[in-house]
Amino acid sequence: MYTADRLWEEAVYLAYHLHWPLREILDLEHPVRARVIEEIGRIHGRLDSGAAGPAQIF
């Protein structure tokens, strides 16, 4: 079940990291929001592990 609390958690996470307006975030379909969140996590994982410098993130 996809709860309102989970939606807010995703929206706030994306707003914090991407500085997108809430309306744009809420307009995304759930699979798209989930994919963007996953990619942000991967980027942070690479940065935290020191595996990539800022220019090598992508």
Automatic annotation (TrEMBL):
InterPro entries to which the protein is assigned, alphabetical: DUF6760
Segments forming domain DUF6760: 2-51
Source taxon at top rank: Bacteria
Pfam family, one: DUF6760
Protein's name according to its UniProt entry: DUF6760 domain-containing protein
